[in-house]
Amino acid sequence: MISILIVMFWMFSKIKYVIEGTMLKVWGVKIDIHSIKRIYKTNNPLSSPALSLDRIAIVYNTYDEVLISPKLKKEFVEELLKINPNIEVEI
């Protein structure tokens, strides 16, 4: 049981959302910030690289979506808007 908890802690400690230039890196996936269409608040419990159920969904490309839970949601979204002001935001 303890080994399972250690593995889960290790996995969740690796979750990071990083903005590098015009790319957003989410758990090894690179998303072009210019391809982001919409950001909205969600409590969807689906599996995703998010530690909390207080999440935001990022819709990019045509049908792609990722759920994340940055600590500072407002500031995170503001940084994305600096790069792509055309993102539709609903939070």
Summarize it.
This protein has 91 residues and is α+β, with helices and mostly antiparallel strands. It is built from two helices and seven strands; from the N terminus they run αββββββαβ.
Q: Which properties best describe this structure?
A:
2 helices, 36% strand, 91 residues, 25% helix, globular, 3-stranded antiparallel beta sheet, 4-stranded mixed beta sheet, 7 strands, alpha+beta
3D shape: globular
Order of helices and strands: HEEEEEEHE
Summarize the main sheet. Answer: 4 strands, mixed
Radius of gyration, rounded? 14 Å
Spatial strand sequence of the major β-sheet: 6-5-4-7
The mean pLDDT is: 85
The tally of strands reads 7
Strand content: 35-45%
Report the uncertain regions: none
Give the structural class: alpha+beta
Q: Assign a percent range to the helix content.
A: 25-40%
Number of separate helices: 2
CA-CA gap between termini: 38 Å
List the helices and strands and how they pair.
Layout: H1 2-13, E1 17-20, E2 23-26, E3 29-32, E4 36-42, E5 55-60, E6 64-68, H2 73-83, E7 88-90
Parallel strand pairs: 4-7
Antiparallel strand pairs: 1-2, 2-3, 4-5, 5-6
Explain this structure to me?
A hairpin with a 3-residue loop joins strand 5 and strand 6. It contains two helices and seven strands; from the N terminus they run αββββββαβ. The radius of gyration is 14 Å and the shape is globular. The model has no long low-confidence stretch (mean pLDDT 85). With 91 residues, the chain is of the alpha+beta class.
